[in-house]
Amino acid sequence: MTFSERIKQARADADLTQTDVSEYFSKQGYSVKPYAISSWETGKHKPDLEQFAILCKVYKADAMYLLTGNIGRNNDSLLHGLNQKGRAHALNYLNLLKSDAIFTEDEEIGEVRKAKTFRLYDLPVSAGTGMYLDSDNFEEMTAD
What we know:
By secondary structure, this protein is mainly alpha-helical. The protein is built from six helices and two strands. The model has no long low-confidence stretch (mean pLDDT 79).
């Protein structure tokens, strides 16, 4: 697949029309008409570096894939074999996992967990009511 075919496929995978992409460029301060996008997709012209960066952003596409057809630095990537839409879903899921402190190594991300204190009683309880049978003998424990 050629560069022009990859950017056309990336637009289709993003479910955008050439007019949608043109409007996105306008919002970014660039005047790119739908016929210019068409000329990129047919291979007649190529986007400049800034335009290419915006295409990657609007398509949520991997720049290396669009340029070379390969993902990242080699074909051993976990995303290899997925189409553009599949890669976008996988990357969205990875970003979701990275935003949750449970799944990250960095303790600064996410909420700070507060330690909880609970009472550990050393007394028997009633089988029917669950009430403690004797006094209030307990030890306070703290857990994260």
